[in-house]
Amino acid sequence: MSGTIRSVSERFDFTGDELAPAYRAAVDAIEAGDLVVLPTDTVYGIAADAFKADAVQRLLDAKGRGRDMPPPVLISVVESLDALATDVPDDGRKLCQEFWPGPLTVICHAQSSLMWDLGETQGTVALRVPDHENTRELLSRTGPLAVSSANKSGQPAALDVYDAEEQLGEAVAVYLDGGQVTGGEPSTIVDLTGDTPRVVRLGALTLEQLRAVVPEVAAQDDEAKPADEAKPADEAEPADETKPADETKPADETKPADETKPTEEPVEASKSETDDEKPTDPDVRPAD
Question: What range(s) does the YrdC-like domain occupy (predicted)?
Fold first, then answer.
């Protein structure tokens, strides 16, 4: 039966040249509404089809978190930004062009025509393009994925597949083993829904790096908070969790970060999609 928790999880090597079985198993699981754990450039993430509400709920249940902490969405290319987000300011585009693929998550107004349910997003969505070649290839095959850090809520984010498997167990259908992640630090989250880009959570990218591209980037409350003090949004480029942009407070793809390991990442999402307004971007698929 599609979308049910499987009695046995499968693990696949996600490195080297023999990737065909891993891609096939992951795509099949996503299409069935099941969960997949995958590596990114920051931490391991737990992924679900962004356009299947029951799959997203299964992701939240596996982590032990509520709909008030919606997961961010990973995409394969920067060109997919406008298929999922609207009213993206020029300064925000500059940041995406400079740091994607990479550890930057941006909170944008979601396209109102999209049919998905990521949780209580207040009409926003957190987006990122991970700097992991094999994961981007998987995203090009599945379309946008809701991805949160691969850990139980409140626990450190997994830096290898075995840690993720120990925490999430058989709630996940397919584990993709990409070895130890080299990043280990959550993505930096920037809110693009206001007049000026504003840091919601500092992570792998510093405020100085952001301002080197867009000098007007504002730190939250005039003073950016470190990752372990930011209110989670949720990341797959992951850390631990962020509330919707208009409710974020210092404390973020969406999930709070641990002092020694990242936890997860923030997000915000969307509304409904009409049949004649389905997105045409190859990275975006209408709801089943």
Answer: 20-205
- Provide the 10 A C-beta neighbour count for residue 82: 14
Q: Which residue has the tokens 């936890």?
A: 263
In angstroms, rounded to a whole number, what is the distance separating the alpha carbons of residues 277 and 214?
A: 33
Distance in Å from the first CA to the final CA of the chain: 16
Strands (E), 6-159: 10-13, 36-38, 45-49, 73-74, 85-86, 104-110, 124-128, 145-149
Dihedral sign, Cα of residue 266, residue 57, residue 75, residue 43: positive
Identify the bridge partners of residue 175 per DSSP, sorted by sequence position: 11, 37
Query: Computed over its alpha carbons, how large is the radius of gyration of the chain?
Result: 17
CA dist list (Å): 244 to 17, 70, 193, 219: 40, 8, 11, 17
pLDDT at 38 over 80: yes
Verdict on whether the full-model pTM lies above 0.85: no
Identify the residue whose tokens are 């942009």. Answer: 245
Of 72, 124, 86, 117, give the one whose Cα is nearest residue 232.
72
Domains and CATH numbers, the chain: 10-272 (3.90.870.10)
Mean pLDDT of the chain: 82
- What are the percentages of helix, strand and coil residues in the chain, rounded to 5? 30, 20, 55
Q: Is the pLDDT assigned to residue 49 strictly greater than 90?
A: yes
> Are the beta carbons of 103 and 183 closer than 8 angstroms?
yes
Residue whose C-alpha is closest to residue 138's, from 168, 171, 178: 178
Q: CA 8, CA 253: separation in Å to the nearest integer?
A: 27
Instruction: Give 282 or 171, the one with higher predicted confidence.
Output: 171
The pLDDT of 136-159, averaged and rounded, is: 96
